[in-house]
Specification:
4-stranded antiparallel β-sheet, globular
């Protein structure tokens, strides 16, 4: 059984099955690509894993414990984080302030410590700020720490969203289209960042339409269509799957 396992997971919206009897597993230390056309059910799947939705049937397990149906903050607390679209950034705060805010789940002191700015609070405040600095350095953003989020280049806004997710010290990171809108040079840099995230001990599920990035990063790829699994395998197998090529990837020679 994988680190994160979905067993026959189904989610209906009215008469539409957005996710339909889906089986999938993420192994420890793996980058798993999740691809498919718009409307295939990829974001719904992330919403199910992260607790925004509850499945109508099926089970989601994390480290062999059932998490399906639990609240998002409960799921986050056991080590599962997710990047959202950059519209969720605090646009009028600096990059550093955004990451500090993202540490709120790590705060251990109580209300009175905060109100009276106790020794414990001051110590924890320093630790959080140091951790935020470290994350920005990890993502090569130290030169932008005092830049307002709204003024960051698009690629760095994506990095900031990743820094906020990593501030919760996840075991698994769900990444939703981190390459969207990037030029080739930014894509190459982001691919390096995703690899470093995996090397740091975080397993990754990656939703992405940039197939060159997906093929270059993923250990395995799951392709879904109309909420069902169409194919699963290593990148070479997906590249040579005729159904996948015709439906999603175009001609095979696009990737050689």
């Amino acid at each position: 059984m994988g680190l994160l396992t979905l067993e026959s997971v189904t989610k209906h919206f009215g008469g539409l099955a957005a996710v339909n009897c889906l089986n999938m597993a993420l192994e420890e230390g793996e980058i798993l690509g999740l691809v498919g056309p718009n409307g295939a059910g990829k974001t719904t799947l992330f919403n199910l894993i992260s607790g925004i939705y509850s499945p109508n049937s099926g089970t989601i397990l994390f480290k062999n414990k059932v998490i399906s149906g639990k609240k998002p903050h409960k799921i986050a607390s056991v080590g599962l984080a997710r990047t959202f679209q950059i519209s969720t950034l605090y646009k009028k705060c600096t990059a550093l302030e955004n990451v500090i805010i993202g540490h709120h789940r790590q705060i251990r002191v109580g209300l009175w410590d905060i109100l009276w700015r106790s020794r414990s609070f001051n110590k924890e405040e320093r630790e959080v700020e140091r951790s935020a600095h470290d994350l920005l350095t990890f993502l090569n953003m130290e030169d932008f720490k005092n830049t307002l989020a709204k003024n960051l280049p698009l690629g760095y806004q994506h990095r900031l969203a990743i820094a906020i997710a990593l501030s919760n010290k996840p075991i698994v990171l769900l990444m939703d289209e981190p390459f969207a809108g990037m030029v080739p040079e930014e894509t190459i840099e982001m691919m390096g960042i995703v690899r470093r995230i995996r090397e740091s001990g975080v397993s990754v599920i990656l939703i992405e339409h940039d197939m060159h990035a997906v093929m270059g990063l993923s250990d395995r790829i799951v392709v879904i269509n109309y909420g069902r699994k169409l194919a699963e395998g290593i990148p070479e197998e997906i590249q040579n799957n005729n159904d996948v090529i015709e439906a999603y990837l175009g001609r095979q020679d696009d990737f050689v």
